[in-house]
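Progress note, project year one: complex with N-hydroxy-L-asparagine.
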Amino acid sequence: MPVISFLSAVLFLSLLPPCWGGLPLVINTWSFKDATTTAWKTLNSGGSILDALERGCAQCQSEQCDGSVGYGGSPDEKGETTLDAMIMNGDTMEVGAVGDLRRIKDAIGVARAVMERTKHTLLVGESASIFAENMGFAAEDLTTNKSLDMFTKWLNGNCQPNYRQNVSPDPLTSCGPYKPSAVLQQRRSVQHIDIHAHDTIGMIVINQTGNVAAGTSTNGAKHKVPGRVGDSPIAGAGAYADSAVGGAAATGDGDVMMRFLPSYLAVELMRTGTDPTTACQTAIKRIKQHFPHFFGAVICANTTGGYGAACNKVPGFSSFPFMVYNLQSTDPVQRAVDCI
Ligand code: SD4
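Model obtained:
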């Protein structure tokens, strides 16, 4: 290579942001390394972006990543574990998702079946489970000794904390059954997800030619009201992908975050040329304006291989780890951002 073009190549590389490593790229929330590796290997052995996304998230489901993905975690008020998941194809803008899925372990697999084997986008609850069984997914009990133990301790502690408000008897001291209270408080408080029992997997996969898939899998919020569906299976909230731009995925207080469609907002900002880190920060700041104490983080990546993340600083959560796999290393690398 002539000296001039070598120097200009060096100059070009030095001008690139630090969070850049070209394509392909796999990035996911938290330190779920095996999920990253599985997605990367799937992509590099000829699998599609959807295969990589599905297998990466499925890895976390079977490992029960941090107890908050897959079976046997986050029991609801009745002690049952229910699952939310989604997958989005940024080439076709197709989405498949499941919410409040019961008795089926492979939530991301069912989400993909919704996308590929129906004309719908989101199936929920008991009917989603029946759909899954009909599609060949095994029905199993999602309860484990650990989730049973968590549930029993919660019951013995007067069902604290819980997600009820404006009901009687007082949800701060009782297990119900609840009835609507006579007076409705005007400014209702937010029940935060336990930041020590969090960790939805949100993943973005971008192949060599810039095709993007994004998705999520989670068992949601611990001690949720039965029937609750969080942000993870909602397109634009839990994740979003557009192969013209990039992808984003979110984790945290889903009940709050889903009102702001942070993944959609981040992708739209990147569409206008905003770099991934700033796009993620803006999505977090938008929520923070209204809910300063929400717990949450967003990851973002664009089709040139740039990536970034942001999180909201709250007590006990000042930095957010995420995994990145690209051609710059032979293993997935854990990165972290300081929360804002
Ligand atoms: C939910 N967003 O169901 C998920 C939970 C989560 O970190 O991501 N926790 O609200």
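The first strand starts at residue 25 and ends at 29.
The first helix runs from residue 3 to 15.
No further modelling is planned for this target in the current period.
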